[in-house]
Amino acid sequence: MQETDPQRTDPDGNCPLCQSQLTMGDILKPEVFLPHCGKEIDETDDDQEYTFASPAQFPIPLRQEKEDWTALGKNALKTFAEDRHLVVVNKGDPDLLRGFQVCTLCGKAAVDQDAGGLASHKRPYQISYIPGRGRRPAPTCDGVSRSVLLGNDFKSDLMIMRLKALAPLETQSDPGRAAFMAMQHAMKTLAEALNLAASRRLDLDPSEFSSGFRVYPTDPQNQEIIGEIYLFDTLSGGAGYASQIGLELREVLDQEVRHLLGHCPANCDRSCYECLRHYGNQYFHNQLDRHLALALLDYALVGTLPPLDDWTAQTRALAPLARMLEKSGVSVQLGVQAGPITLPLIAERRGQRLLIGTANGLYAKTASDAHPLTKRYRNDAASPVEIINEFLLSRNRPAVHQEILAKL
Q1: Residue 388: phi, psi to the nearest 5?
Q2: Which structural domain range is residue 323 located in?
Q3: Which of 52, 182, 288, 310 is most buried, judged by most C-beta within 10 A?
Q4: pTM, entire model
C-alpha cells in the first residue's frame, strides 16, 4: 500500500515493490455490521465465506521522510515518529483480493468474486410496513453496487527500527525472488518477536502492543533495500509503552528477542506455540521463521552473515531432495568429503554430474559465486555446481526437484 497526495485522482507510476501498475481504490469504513437478513448465523453452515483484515500497515512514503535516526547496530537505526498514518484493510477473498461489492442504496455487501457486481437482490434487513400507510416496499433492491475494500485508518506514535540490506543479501524488491520473500518472512517474524519481547520486558499483555513491517527500495540502481519494523501502543492515544521500549531497544533485541528466536523449548524447525505462535497471529503462522529472523537480526546489529560453509546443515537440508531425486532415477551421494570441503549432495544421471549446495534464504542468487563449493569447482567443467536457496528448498521442494532434473 502506498500513500497518495490528497489532490491526486490517479496514482503515478508503478508499485515500488512489484513494479505493477498502481490503481486507485476506495476504502469503506464500516460503522456497523449486521447479520444477513437480521437472522442469527448458523454455526453449522459449512458454506460461510471467511475474510481477514490485515495488520496495521504503515504506507510506503512518496518522498523521503525527515526523521532523526539513532544508530542501533552495524546495519540498523531507530527513531520515534509522531502522529503517523496507519491503515487496516480487509481485501475480501484472500486468493482474489478484489474486495467487496457494496450496494449504495441498501448497504448489502458480498465478497467480490467477479466483475459483474450485485444483481437485483433482497435487502439484508427487515422493513416494517403498516397496511394502508403508503406503498408496500418491494422485496428486492435495485441499487447499484461499488467495489470497495473494507478498512479503517488511524494515527499513532511509532517506534521504528530500520534495517539496511546490502549485497550479498537480496537488494531487488521483486516478489518473485525467493530471497526477497525470505526477507519479508524474516521481517514479519522479527516484528512478532519484538511485540512479544516488549510485553515480557514490561510485564504487560501482548495485546497492549501491535507491530508490523514494511520493505521498500530507496536506490534506483537496486544497491540496497530498506526494511522497517514499527511498534505502537494499541490503546487509543497511546500509553507510552512503545516509546519506553524504544529507549531500551538494543537491550530488548540482545536479550528477550534473541532468546525468543534462538531458544524454542520444543526446538521447532520454524515456529510453534512454544515460541512465536499464538491466537493473534494465526493467519500468518506459515510466515514465521525464527531462524531467518535470527540471521537477519545478527546482520542488522553486528553485521555478520549466515555461514556458507556449514556442510552438516547443508547436507541435512538436502536429504529430502536427495530422496526425491533417487525416486526419479538419479544416483545421489550425501556428505562426500573432498579435501578441505564437504560436497553436500552429488547427483548423477546419464553421465551428467551435478554438485549441489545450499545458501541461507536471505542470500541473493548472485551470492552463489562466493560459495566455497563454487569457488572450488569454478574451473572444473565436468563438475558443474548448483547452489540452492534454502528458503525455496524448504517451501517449494518439488520445483527445486524439477529444476535439478532439467540440468541432468
Answers
A1: -105, 135
A2: 311-406
A3: 182
A4: 0.85
